[in-house]
Amino acid sequence: MAVSIVDVVGIAGAVLTTFCWLPQALRIIRTRDTHAISLPATVALVIGVGCWLTYGVALGDAPLIGANAISLALTLTILGLKLRHG
Fold this sequence. Notes:
single chain, about 90 residues, mainly alpha, Monooxygenase, 4 helices, about 85% helix, about 0% strand
């Protein structure tokens, strides 16, 4: 199966927007410093990613589900640490 430029762009976007949260989550886990993290923005992000995940499930779109499941796990980790450490 040939991979189109559209597929490459979609894959790149999914990988970048999914794993961009990994360094932030690791830093917060390591330092326990969440003062620079906005609680309202993080809550909105978690809700938004949850909506994208629900949308992906409704469509049965595996890449959308996978990317957003990982993003949701990372952003929930950040939210939980923000709530715990202020």
